[in-house]
Amino acid sequence: MNSQDKVKAFEQVARLFSISNESAKYFLNHVQKSFKLERPPHKLILEFVEKQNYQFQPTPYDVAFAMKESGAWNYDLGSRPAVVEDEEDLYK
């Protein structure tokens, strides 16, 4: 077992996007939740994200969509989450 195997997927994601470990766990869990039934393991999500060389942190759904489109995880996606509007827009 090399030293990289001891690092958890969320720790790698946290480093990759310069976010907290908690935010990285949330991100990975929400990528999984973007799929209807079959959910990809965190390690597969991490490997996919690393290969994409994102210049910014994508949304979990965008990662899930890219995984499906590329065939990395070819299972049905749930619906795209609703976009949260600014409160002031709701009252115009």
Q: How does this model look, in words?
A:
With 92 residues, the protein is mainly alpha-helical. The protein has helices spanning 3-6, 9-17, 21-33, 42-52, 60-70, 87-90. Helix 2 crosses helix 3 and helix 2 packs parallel to helix 4 (42-52). The chain is globular.
Amino- and carboxy-terminal Cα gap: 58 Å
Q: How many β-strand stretches?
A: 0
Structural class: mainly alpha
Fraction in helix: 55-70%
Question: What would you call the quaternary organization?
Answer: single chain
The major β-sheet equals: none
| Succession of helices and strands | HHHHHH
How do the strands and helices of this protein lay out in sequence?
Elements: H1 3-6, H2 9-17, H3 21-33, H4 42-52, H5 60-70, H6 87-90
Helix pairs in contact: 2-3, 2-4, 3-5
Features of this protein?
single chain; 92 residues; mainly alpha
